[in-house]
Amino acid sequence: NIITKENWEHYFVNIIGIDYRKRKESGAIFRDKADAMKYSINASGIKNSSTYYIGDTPGDMNASNKNGVSFVAVKYGFHKWKLKDIKNQLTIANTEELNKLIENITRGLT
Known about the structure:
Helices cover 37% and strands 11% of the residues. The chain has 110 residues and is of the alpha/beta class.
């Protein structure tokens, strides 16, 4: 996967993808992406204000907004964004930009 390929494992506390449908403790299914994100934030103990959601769909952006999390719109992903929809969002156009963003976040520059 891209996390391993780019050697990003040490930047992440939790990674929950679309195929991660059940909570580890109870086995209950997440209602939606926002619910999965809330679980991940609570499980990690990290503040919402220190969390970034990197996504490529409006559903990803909505989940991030519901949880008070900064959203990064991936412009090379599944959804083709309209400029008006992401004008106030951080955006990345490729994995090189994602690398730079991650470095800046971890250094406190974003």
